[in-house]
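Here we describe the complex-level prediction in full. Unlike the single-chain runs in Section 2.1, the three entities below were treated as one system.
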Amino acid sequence: MRLRRQRRRLNKRIEKEKEKEKEKDESIESLFQQLNGSNDFTLSTLPYEEHTLSIGYYSTLIDSEILHRDIFPFLKDLDAISSLPTLLPIEEIILTTDISVVRDNLLKGYTLIFDVNNLNLFGLVKSDVDKTRQVSLPEVEFSVVGPKESFVESLDTNINLVRKRLPIPEFVSKELIIGKLSKTRVSVLYIQGVANEENIHTVIQRLTDLDFDQITDSSMITQLIQDNQNSPFPQLIDTERPDRIATAVAEGKIAILVDGAPHGLIGPTTIFEFFSAFEDYYLNWLVASFFRLVRFFAVLFSILATPIYVAVLTYHYELIPKDMVATLVTSRSAIPLPPILEALVLELAIELLREAGARLPTKVGQTIGIVGGIVIGTASVEAGLTSNVLLIIVALAALASFTTPVYQMGNTIRLIRFPFLLMAHYMGFIGVAISFCYLLIHLLKLTSLGRPFLEPFYPPRVQDFKDALIRLPYSLQSKRPIQEQTEDTMRFNGDKAKKKADPKK
Amino acid sequence: MDSRMMLFVSVLVTLPLTGCMHIEQEVIDEIQLTTAGGYEYSEDGMIEVTTVYPNYQPDKSVINETLTDTAKLSKEARDRLNLQSDKPVVSGKVEVTLYEWKTAEKGIFDFLDTLERDPSIGSSIYLGVVDGSPKELLSKQYGNQDNGIYLSNLIEQNIETGQIPKTNLHQFLYKFYADGIDPTLPVLKQEDGKVKLTGIGLFAEDKLVGQLEEEQFFTFKLLLERKGQKGSYSIKLNEDNDISIYNISSGRNFDIQKPMTNSEIIINVNLKATVSEYQDGILNKQKTTRLEKEIKELLEQDSQEMIQQFQEKGIDPLGIGDQVRSRTRNWDPKKWKELYPDLQITVKVNVDLLESGVIE
Amino acid sequence: MEEKQKQISPFLVFFLVHSVQVGVGVLGFQRIIMKSAGNDAWIAVIAAGISINVAIMIMYLLLNKQQKDLIDIHKDLFGKWIGGFFSLIWIIYWLVIGIVVLRSYIEIVQVWVFPLINIMMFSIIILGLVYYNVTGGFRVVAGISFLGVVIPFYIFLSFLFPIEYANFRNLLPVWNHSVKELSIATKDMMLGLLGFSTLLMYYPYIKHPKKSQKWAHFGNLLTIGIYLFILIITIAFFSDKQVSKQIWATLSMWKIVELPFIERIEYIGITSWILIILPNICLSVWAASKGIQKMFHFHLNKVIPVILILLLFATVTIQGRETIDKLNQYLAIVGLGLVFIYVPILTVLSFFFTKKRKGNTGNG
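The structure predicted for the assembly as a whole is:
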């Protein structure tokens, strides 16, 4: 296994070197020939008195205002390309002889300036158009209290949003370019001296090893670099909140930001973090802990409620309390379908509603949700296709699955309900228990960046329970979680923090 | 690892489709949930089994329907009941089983065997003796309710309010198997479409030998339970002087000096209660003390008579033998059986009237 | 010693020892020990606990001295062939433990829940779980042992309900039985507790193995606590003759529980018990396959399927109560012999021989 990986890496390196040699061979003429194939590439010649300058750019990538305001007026005073940096009022100017650099930067929105008679030096002036969305409210992870900023599609803006929360030199952003076609900029953020070196290496290693043509969003990165790609569970947290990323990085985690993606990734993580909304940190610890427990039980309910209904009604009638027998029997007596089909029909109906709501524009989606929920629900009960008891259970289970703060996890939970349901039909309670064991073993085997996914539950680390199922007060959170294996384990001096109380009266 | 996991998932998903697990499905609306059963011997020595099951109507009312058949074994009878039913008859939700008086006199253990053996039957179901025909009792409709649940609520309610001592299948079997204690069961009677608890049936092993009347319930419960709570009791002190007490908390302990000898066994009973009705004017302190004494004497006399009755019949529903057993190493039940009828058993009652309600 | 990545913290030995001791036995041990010791059976439980603690101590004496697993110790002391023979006995012993646990559980499911269940299919599904677990390596096996103790712990709370009908006078008179009767009961009691011998295999996987000894003792104590708790409630709940009729007294006790939202908690109990027996099977399969891997140098992931298929055949072939009981008895005798006679002898030998060898090398 390891050998194969090494060989693959070696092959890649050889290929890269070959490519480089090829690039050296190509001349500026062949480059222009290639670029002219696209209509939005402009190459114009400006004949000045002393020399003739040529200027080339992608009209769709650059800001013409910069071109006309900050470049053209100054060019006629230019004596040599090498004096471009001193002449233009733009700070990012590259002087190069390398054709491949020219090509790459043209595609990033630089303007190429060179002397027609001297093809040895090229000037590249940054003039890209900065058309991104304004920083807006978080929509997926909305919170009532706390900051209301969310990431946008521009990497620089996003890093800015994080860095202004961590104004320290140790906060590092390592940039990588991934994607053969998309050349996506990916930033790895961490705090030097806090984040575990091994984790940093793992992330950077996995990112550089990626061989993929196009990266359009951070969620693709998650799928590509997570430890077990066949698991329905996401192993990196996906968030749109800069404050969450900043806190995670401060805790010793590593964040990944992708250009063009309004979401960042956090790792290593544990399953419990998927059930903690970031608002939990802005509420009193008792309230926050209560909400976390509610969410956790909602998930258990969502997974187990319908399967238990199916199991009990199909096999274990003895379990039903005597006062409830009448309710269940009357509600089911007119229904021709066996419990499993009844449940599947309703579960799928809910999935349809959700999917339809998600694919349609917001306003239409809402209507579909309400109309579908009420009309289809009541109609199917009246038509005798489903029992009203099950309708309540399925609706509650669906509702419960929406309480998970991380969207991806909500999807996972809705998905894993179905194997449970089938097993419940197949073997009753024992089927449910077997599915549950399977789920447990799967979670035990999962890792996030090589760290156990079920921590602090397994391996049991009492210290990390302070911020897992419940969140204890900040005064008890003086140590960073063991999960991250941080280089510097102390967040702050707990004893000192306690002493800084109000002066005694 | 990945391919292996996929394999497992696919096996897991395809298994239910193959359906070769051979598990019998019992979908709740496709089975006949019997909730009560009645047993009696017919004249030719066969067992006549009556089961009742609720038929839930769409308008939420319940109609009780009964099935009756005779057979040699009770499970055999159940199989034959299936011949009359449109859905398979199952017994997992049976709440009450009833035995006809004469059947109970012949012994009911043969019927209990199946209840004990069948894993689908809970051990907290109620057993009862019917003064009359169980078939008749079960085929009546008692309000808009399932008969099994009605009967079980009737018994449960009376246990919880302290009218009769705790009883259920487990307790019956416990006392049946134990050497030093004999079981009891409530006796039910159907009159004019109503069911009434009329007595506590006394068993020797599994055979019914007699019953306690309604007036004796309280005394019996007092002597049987180590710690009792709730309940109420009315006493006729003399011609026009009645008193009723409630909210009783009682304690009982045995004083056995020399177990397994002829020496006296003393049962101490402590009774604390509140007066709920008194028909002879104002209750002052003197009167209370006098009342306490009168109640004490009455109770002692009643218990003495009751124990004598037990000794004559050779039964021990109070578990005196069990008390002796727990005080003797290598207890010999046979020797105890010989000793028991002639033992001197004394009951000492201590009555405390704590409150007299909101008035004096 | 194994790689650090694969090792577990010594604290987890608590769960590893405890989880293999609590299995199907808890559901029906009462009848067996009360047959000879009656209402004094609780004394036998305590006595068994103490003896097991002594056995654990001896095992640690051996392991701390050698710092390697049983297979290597055998190889060092007896050489390749004789050592291999002894190792094979142990491997078969662990395998049979797995078979007995699985088969007994299936029997319970057969009797209590699904009488017609297809044993073959059911074993395949459970063994599939075992396979998925064991291929994850020892860390995952230890994980399921931990979860198998922590998650189903709520089950034991349900034993508080039968107390309503309990008659604690049944415990009296104390010491109603002779020492001989009690020692028979003690022996019978120990049968269910011997699974901890897998310690001989996973010892090298413990991070600071010497520190783990106290946890092993605590694990055993918790086991004894649970057995004692259940036994005392059983004695009080059933009368003497009644309990002798109950094959699974623990399950029969559950029949009395009625909660407002659920009646008949034994179905929940039997179902949850999967999580309790899973570590049992996983750990014994792991120990057996690890042993075979070390002896014959096969790849571990190739040994496991073979072992599981063996297990499957054995489970399907064994039919009926009597065969299971008989197998259980033989297993128990072998287990007692191995743990209480063989291990102490091995310990003495190891002390004797290693000293000598050291002396030799010192001279040479």
